[in-house]
Target: Serine/threonine-protein kinase
Amino acid sequence: MAAVRGQPLQALGARELNARAQHNITPLKSTRRVNDENIQAVKENQQDPEQQKKERAKRKKEKLSALCKTPPSLIRTRTGKDYRRGLFLGEGGFARCFQIRDDSGTVYAAKTVAKASIKSDKTKTKLLSEIKIHKSMSHPNIVQFVDCFEDDVNVYILLEICPNQSLMDLLKKRKVLTEPEVRYFMTQIIGGIRYMHTRRVIHRDLKLGNIFFDPEMNLKIGDFGLAAVLRADTDRKYTICGTPNYIAPEVLTGKTVGHSYEVDVWSIGVMMYALLIGKPPFQSKDVSLIYERIKTNDYMFPEDKPISESAKQLIQDVLSTDPLKRPTLDELLDYDFFKGPFPERITVETLVSTPDYSDLDRGHSQVNFLNCKRNSGLIQSSHKNPVEILKTDLESEKPKAILPQSLSPGNTKNKYREVTDSAVRPRKYEEVPSKLGKARRLDDENNSKKRSSHQDIKLSDSILRNECTNTLNGMNLAEKHSRMRSIKSSTADLKTPILISKWVDYSNKHGFSYQLSTDDIGVLFNDGNTLLRINNKNSFWFITNDPSEGWLASEYKIGSIPTELSRQVEIADFFARYMKTNLCKVSNNEDSLIEHEEIFLRRYTRYELYVMFEMSNGSIQFNFRDHHKICISQTGSVITYISPERTSETCLLSTVLRDGRFPSVSNDIALQEKIELIKGALKEKMNQ
Model:
């Protein structure tokens, strides 16, 4: 959480952040339905001054945020944790926002909604849905939800504070932004949106005013007041909602066709255009004209605001009237626009002055782009559980309360933890010698099951982190040895590791199937369990991934398959036939076929530039997009290279780093870049 600790509230008053109602620096409801403040502005232009005055007074009286009473200076919660109210931050049509501080000095933004404004079940459901959706989000480019609670008058939503205002505020000060800045901002925004979409959430109100800067000038998407959860990826929504300048054409058709994830992609095009040109593409004082322009795709690139052809191409493709013709979020990042100058970071000076990126070369820009994507979660594949709105989330246990206990606990840290379905679990285990790498063999004859006394400890996650830590430490040690030329490392124990030789990713239905260089066949099912068929043996292993006890292995004879495992065996057999018929082996090296240990795949991760395989014996294999492959084994001390022609070579990592190449490889394989990618992936896994 990017909250500010140990600072007095007044410290946040810099750069006029706390002028009443001037800036919304934390998510607030603003324009909601299509017939709102913009329509009122048009009507006012047709009225005389006296009539305008009466209309404004009437709207002010009816404004829901006006019902929000200023919170007391000391806000007491039912859980015993109290907050002190600070300065007023701003208001929208639905809520008012204040700084508040807890006893430790941490400052938050408190979005305050008057209970008097929640007059119907529909309004209450809408608020609780917003809380549930926002609460379930955890991403570096989404405003962090902290907690929610209520008193007799208001409902309070605590959020991390974003003290550097919004993209809208930045555009108002700077008028237009540079393309390098826009590349950086769009990458972070795409990262946040992609995370939401993997959880089947559509934001539906993405606009410059709803995207905020944290203290380090990273962008954060906020305001989930119009967000919706899809029951399935093929589901559609039909409510006409959003902010006029940003509404996608399919939203305006209402119940005719419906809308889905593509509306958020459309908003990316509108925001990008606005940042580079200075205003949204369809802007007009007449709201109905805005909608007509959106439907007919009526916009142009002004000649006095020159932008690159690559930027124009991206905007034109994103602002396609047909949502199916818009590029996906992943496709967006492959456009030539993102190959231009890319800054390492954005500084606070950009809030008031135009930065100079003329000295950015292509090499540094590519590295900066890669790091920005990694920090925004765009390189690692996301397998998050979809958000689900439960009936219990919307029903309070107390007659006069708005928030149910499920949404307003005193400690939200461990709520809505993502869980996976449990599967067939073996019974009691005992430590016995086994060739199965780092999995405990189980005694299936015993009818009792041993349970860990620490059920909340995810031992398997801890093991994976430790393996990555040990491997990275080993690589760092090898790098140190490579600089100490007087030290000679022994190659006596140098062994060619067992590799993933073939694989099929069918995780959208069953799981991930693979064949090892030993010809063993495995399937890592979507529930985390593994079936491993050993080559030339009349048996198979079923390995359960128990979070509290690690990997627990049971061996079964082919002729006596338990009924509950028959489907898994059938799937494994199908994949085995498919790989044998259709796929080539990754390497022609047969060294690993000699008296080998039996290992299995613990975890795989698909990144944009490579696939990462973590094996049960600690070796980690990287299949790069350019068809080169590298395996790091023996606790980071040994490296194996497999060429696109399927020849392989195993060496001490220290020797390869010292020489800058493999002995038998003469062509440039971008070795150093690949080593840095591997180390970056290991660091990322260590911190998960």
User: Anything to note?
Assistant: Residues 374 and 398 are 44 Å apart (CA to CA). The chain has three domains: 9-160, 167-375, 440-445+453-686.
